[in-house]
Design a protein that fits this description.
The chain is mainly alpha-helical and about 200 residues long. It has one domain. It is about 70% helix and about 5% strand. It contains 8 helices and 4 strands; from the N terminus they run E-E-H-H-H-H-H-H-H-E-E-H. The strands form 2 sheets. A two-stranded antiparallel sheet has the order 1-2. It has a two-stranded antiparallel sheet with strand order 3-4. Strand 3 and strand 4 form a beta hairpin. Helix 4 packs antiparallel against helix 5. The termini are far apart. Keywords: Membrane, Transmembrane, Transmembrane helix. Pfam families: DUF6512.
């Protein structure tokens, strides 16, 4: 087993680093859209409103970036690692959705502290579940192609639903009672101009 130091295996080091990285970058992304005067390119990666769906970006994109760096820098065996990380990420995203609706449904409202707690726990789930799933899957071939497809599909859905969200509860901004960022006719053409 490779070690960063005498008492810290490389895999554990990357797990700890990944959790810190995701927490810091996710927090930064929460404010980035507003800090950049609502720039449409930033909207692809940063929440554009207070909907649950948009806040899933805070977990998804930092984990996606860190996982890519792990595969390149640490030279992990992509076949087993990528599938395990993808499944763990889906579990983290699912926890945010389920946790929010359960606690807000019971209490009748939502609280910022509780939402932050969900985010932190989802990070722990994603990074602590990865090595467990990786060990469990040694008995069967891990579908790396499917993992890549899932990550690409989720990325495409985050991009698409930023501008064209379905009009269901998962996508509504509870404060503005609105969806996405396209709130006026002609906005799509303006966004394309700004993007390209």
């Amino acid at each position: 087993m490779r070690y960063i130091s005498r008492n810290l295996p490389v895999s554990r080091f990357f797990t700890i680093l990944g959790m810190i990285f995701t927490g810091v970058i996710g927090t930064f992304l929460h404010f980035l859209f507003q800090w950049t005067a609502n720039h449409p390119a930033i909207a692809l990666f940063s929440p554009v409103n207070e909907s649950i769906w948009e806040h899933l970006k805070l977990l998804f994109f930092p984990v996606l970036l860190f996982t890519s760096l792990e595969c390149i820098l640490y030279k992990r065996r992509v076949s087993g690692f990528l599938w395990a990380r993808t499944m763990a990420l889906l579990a983290g995203l699912g926890f945010i959705i389920a946790g929010f609706y359960i606690y807000s449904g019971i209490l009748g409202t939502n609280y910022t502290a509780a939402d932050i707690g969900l985010f932190v726990i989802s990070i722990l789930i994603t990074f602590l579940l990865t090595p467990y799933l990786q060990k469990r899957q040694k008995s069967f071939a891990s579908p790396t192609g499917l993992a890549i497809f899932i990550l690409l599909l989720l990325t495409a859905l985050f991009f698409l639903f930023t501008f064209y969200p379905p009009h269901i509860g998962l996508f509504i901004d509870p404060a503005a009672k609105d969806y996405g960022i396209l709130r006026q006719p002609g906005a799509y053409e303006s966004l394309l101009y700004d993007l390209f």
